[in-house]
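Final report, closing paragraph on structural work. Over the funding period we assembled a curated collection of sequence-structure pairs, and we close with a single example.
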Amino acid sequence: MDTIASLFSFITTPVSWVIVQFHSVYGALFGPDTGWAWGLSIVSLVILIRICLIPLFVKQIKATRAMQTLQPEMKKIQERYKNDKQRQSEEMMKLYKETGTNPLSSCLPILAQSPFFFALYHVLNSIASNDTIGVINDRLLESAQKAHIFGAPLAAKFTDGAGKVEALGSSITDVRVVTAIMIVLMSASQFFTQRQLMTKNVDTTVKTPFMQQQKMLMYVFPVMFAVFGINFPVGVLVYWLTTNVWTMGQQMYVIRNNPTPGSKAQAEYLERLTKHVTRHDKVGKRRDRAIVKAIVAKGRDRNEYERKFINGLSKAGLAAQADGTVIKSETAAAAQAEDGSPTTAAGIPKRQQPKRQSKSQRQHGGSTGVKAAGENEPKTSLTKADEPEDAKPAAAAKKGGAKPAGGTRSKAQSGQRKGPQRPKSPSKK
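Its predicted structure, as stored:
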């Protein structure tokens, strides 16, 4: 570890300068030789570094999601060229180039933070060895050696012997208890951060080897932190615990407000957004509008949670627009006109379907209750006064037993018999 830290000695001067500047502020509040002054200086160094790394963190999120999107294509390439590793690698690189993704982008924050980590380790190791480094002179060196965090010296390690710990003004029991607690917290925060990523912010609709690798790293990383943590000074443990807590909080914020499509976090987010939009009839935040806009643009490619979100808006009488806003949906708006009659989506009175008429009603201009000639039983009887004149010949024809022929409507209406004429019998005088 000392050899690796010496490789980053070029950055020890800026790191030590930042620590000294923060120490001058906290020293005025808590005292220059206290563990609070030096411990908070290290915490402030972490916060400053992580703020500077936020653009890289955003790039890491985009790269991780791009890699998750490519997993189905990568799996196809692996299956197609499983016996030709060279061709498999070539096709993978071609896929990365076409999509503009880089597998190493997801590691950018860790890679960018590692020089500061090793530089801080080099600074604290020099303090433990009673050597000045960077801008830390003899006076600041003596002050740093007196600083204790919960009874453990800033430069003490879990593996230090009793003699070295006593030289720093502490006991080996205090050092090992404090360092053990900090190592457990550091490993637990790393495990929770990785588990949160795997259980909530991974597309559950795609099962790929990438998910298995991430699941394996969820258990490997905490073990690595525990193993290496016993060789870290207390000040470095403070640094690494702070950066883990920062990463956990930053990831919780991203998962809650900008989840991966298809993940459980997206289902929870869209459920909250549905309740908010249906309550206020609008999308308030710009971030929410951007997500709604992306969902609308997907069209038929929406996943299960996104379709459920669109359907939820429709049931509430709202419709998502291409610009990410919502408006009152015409299909769910006015179901009835002001007079109570049914209306269409645009509010126009709905056209009523006319009641189907019988054949005799069509023949007699829509009169109800009139039976056409040749039918057995009339549906409705009419009084003699109300019976139309043109129906009388038809009634007479029925009594005579004659059936009307088709196409003789005009003759029947003029009073003539329809069908063959009976011969007249000679009259008796």
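The CA atoms of residues 25 and 37 lie 8 Å apart. The longest helix spans residues 172-200. We thank the funder for supporting this effort.
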